[in-house]
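Sanity check

After download, print the first record. It should look like this:
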Amino acid sequence: MENSKEIGIALCEAKIKYVQRLNFWVKNALKGKDLYRHFYITVLDKKFKQPQLWLSSSLFIYDCLLFLLEDIGLESYLFIPLSFSEKSTDISGINYSELKAEISTHDRPSIYLCPLEENHQGVLLKNLSSELKKTVYYEEQQNAEGYLRCIIVTTA
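Expected structure tokens:
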């Protein structure tokens, strides 16, 4: 039982550290009126440089940011690149476990700030949205080689 208590304390300490760093970023973005500014989650902590942690870590960091933005009048969204595909993909029924296998190991997740009422394009992923308790969209763009794919997580 002591081990779970230590893990809980470590998570609380990490969350405080990340909220402080995110608060600094938000204040600078507001000062500079650079509301479309983004950052990669890998700048917050060197352990986030491991691609296998990108999904869970980016969702954790996003929750930390949402705590800061409650009364500011800004929206944020989490952009998570998925692996490249040679053909169009239907992931409308995907769940969290399946999503982990789709995450790109080359492009890091990033978080954006934007004014409220930013419209999102893409396919609403109802199952994943319900599972994450956030709104999740899927987008893909075709280029000469195939499809660039991503999910966008938001609270709107």
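If your output differs, re-run the checksum step. Summary of this record's structure: The first strand starts at residue 38 and ends at 40.
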